[in-house]
Amino acid sequence: MGRKSAKIAGKKGAADRQRSLLFTKALKEVAMSVKAGGPDITSNFSLKVALDRCRKVNVPKDAIDRAVKKGSGKDQADFKEVNYEGYGPEGIAIFVEAATDNVTRTIANVRAYFNKKGGSLGKEGCLQFVFERKAVFTLKDEGQDLDDLTMQLIDAGAEDVERDDGEIIIQGEVEAFGDIYKKLEEMGIESEESGLERLPLNTKPASSKEIYETVATIVELCEDDDDVLKVHHNMDFNEEFSS
Asked: What is the CATH number of the domain that holds 149?
């Protein structure tokens, strides 16, 4: 349900801008991981994951090296993780995860994105019963035996393994992220995507294509901000409206 709701209208904008954003956000995660746990991937699992993400989006090695040094340095920017919770039209929930060295700038930008399209930011915690946080892994569906895969991953903490539109989606508790990640490595399986996601407990349909596109635009505006890491929402995917 959560995966389907995430598949809203495709990205607008130039490909090079999107590539630059992917680089910026991946490198920010590297610097923050180093700052929090040091530069050794054998003891800093979050850095290992961040470096893996950089590799998947083809971030140049010299840029990664600079991000590691930035995270290790005493004078690096002090990034703070912040969340913003709000609503788009028709009460569709939107949860924004960000990391910033200037909270005033970031909240002003995010509020402007919501306001521009008739949405509004709410109080911290207003969406606590709308989403649940899960460890999520996406694999390419290559005809794997789903029962066998499920049995092996359950031992690592997976709660749900299912096929979905050419992908295999694995979900588990947040605390099981590392164990599932390591189990996939042991099995020689590389995930297309992995991370902690906020999945909607209930989804809401947009009443019209206009509302659907308006919510999609709020999500895109937030995602296009350099300070924003992830955006989650509970709008139902609608193939007709997204075409």
From this structure: 3.30.70.980
